Amino acid sequence: MSKIYVIGIGPGAYDQMTGKAIRAMNESDAIIGYTVYVDLVKEYFPGKEFMTTPMKKEVDRCVLAFEEAKKGKTVSMICSGDAGVYGMAGLMYEVGVNYPETELEIIPGVTAATGGAAVLGAPLIHDFCLISLSDLLTPWEKIEARLLAAAQADFVVCLYNPSSKKRHDYLQKACDLMMKYKSPDTICGTVSNIAREGQEAHVMTLKELRDTQVDMFTTVFIGNSQTKEINNKMVTPRGYRNV
Amino acid sequence: MSKIYVIGIGPGAYDQMTGKAIRAMNESDAIIGYTVYVDLVKEYFPGKEFMTTPMKKEVDRCVLAFEEAKKGKTVSMICSGDAGVYGMAGLMYEVGVNYPETELEIIPGVTAATGGAAVLGAPLIHDFCLISLSDLLTPWEKIEARLLAAAQADFVVCLYNPSSKKRHDYLQKACDLMMKYKSPDTICGTVSNIAREGQEAHVMTLKELRDTQVDMFTTVFIGNSQTKEINNKMVTPRGYRNV
Predict the structure, then answer these.
(1) Rounded to whole angstroms, how far apart are CA atoms A25 and A6?
(2) What are the Tetrapyrrole methylase domain coordinates in residue numbering (chains A, B) (predicted)?
(3) Which residues in chain A have their CB less than 8 angstroms from residue B115's CB?
(4) What is the pLDDT of residues A53-112, one digit of tens each?
(5) Residue B127 in 3-state DSSP?
């Protein structure tokens, strides 16, 4: 039985990985991932074999991991954030159907929702939805239905992949949908480059968010009707009385 | 300026904390938290002062942390999972309004949603909602509206606090609401005691989940229309073709 660890390395800083993630990489012969993330960890695991595939080559990356494991190597497949949130864990199980002799162990990590929330304050304290605005693998109609449902039920909403070169106006579209049910004054926040060089956080209203330019390294937080700004932090109360 | 770290210690195992969380506790004079979680970390931080308050004494716990910091101590306020997900981060900002001389730093951790997902397989790979079934601080009508919205928009749903002594039939009620829009055959899963002694995971259908007894140490996952069972793991595909 060969072994592949599927590891969430967290937002990017070495000290935001878990001990378990570090141990798994230390125990591995090969570390495989998307080029950008392999570059983030390379210096901490000298002597390991590193292999990368570019974006949109995710299936190839999974096959590579299983083929390397087949040779008898212990393999780490690394993902930014948590491997199970828009990460590689799911695809590894799907591709793994063809490799029944390989055992998968998923090692969780800090995802951008919670890593970014910690920078902004405490926006996700209560019920929230995580929605990716990327329509590469999901029809936009489905994303739209989810945005509307989340807004109507007064969820806090955290948006992944809010923008890209081809989708420069998606955040604007999402904010317009949100404003069908949420007040334009709803407290929102953005965090870019979480726990990495150039980290930047901003708290603003939903109306202001609509006209803000974000990039693919930004995570967006849209509050619920109770979310407030406290000393420039974005805070959603959980509902304790007498505070 | 005194300092309080608000720290997510993850699901419970020492090696599922981040390096940053461990460093912050090492740098602290006092570690404060709910009794059960302080007991989990006590042995790893000898020489620290430990202080606890019981459940439902959350406001007192925050005040205690600020009062200790006021004495010049560096304080860690610890929470299980992530401090910003149904944790103490929000309340600390709210209470902190009365302590402007104290700086808060939130240190994210692995929350039960991602920790439990890693045990079950990859249920949260795509858009999901996190909903707590506890109506201690939230009206049940609001929880109900969120459950229905989440089911209707085909989100994967992760339920926190699915049960307690007083709320023994809440999971059943939630499943009945889900079945208004989700098929009774929807793949679901439960994980108890994530990363702790007695960890247990089960994959089942929504219909079966409805009649399953869970306790307050269980996290529940309800799939979307695409979620499938692969070798007894709960896997939500992200949508890659040709797999």
Answers:
(1) 10
(2) 3-209
(3) 108
(4) 888 889 999 999 999 999 999 999 999 999 999 999 999 999 999 999 999 999 999 999
(5) coil
Q: Which residue of A has its CA nearest to B139?
A: A239
pLDDT digits (tens, 9 = 90+) for B10-48: 998 999 999 999 999 999 999 999 998 999 999 999 999
Nearest chain A residue to B60 by CA: give it. Answer: A243
Q: What ipTM was assigned to the predicted interfaces of this complex?
A: 0.96
Provide the mean pLDDT of chain B.
95
Q: Running DSSP on this structure, what letter comes out for residue B57?
A: -
Q: Which of A6, A82, A142, A194 to mutate to test the interface with B (most CBs of B within 10 A)?
A: A82
DSSP designation for A87 = S
Query: pLDDT, tens digit, for every residue of B80-111?
Result: 999 999 999 999 999 999 999 999 999 999 99
A90/B contact by beta carbon, under 8 A:
yes
Report yes or no: A237 at the B interface, CB cutoff 8 Å.
yes
- Is the CB of residue B55 less than 8 Å from the CB of residue B47? no
Say how many C-beta atoms besides its own lie within 10 A of residue B78's C-beta: 28
User: How far is the alpha carbon of A232 from chain B, nearest alpha carbon, in Å?
Assistant: 11
- Domains in chain B with CATH codes: 2-107 (3.40.1010.10), 112-235 (3.30.950.10)
* Nearest CA distance, A71 vs chain B (angstrom): 22
CB contact under 8 A, A108 and B115: yes
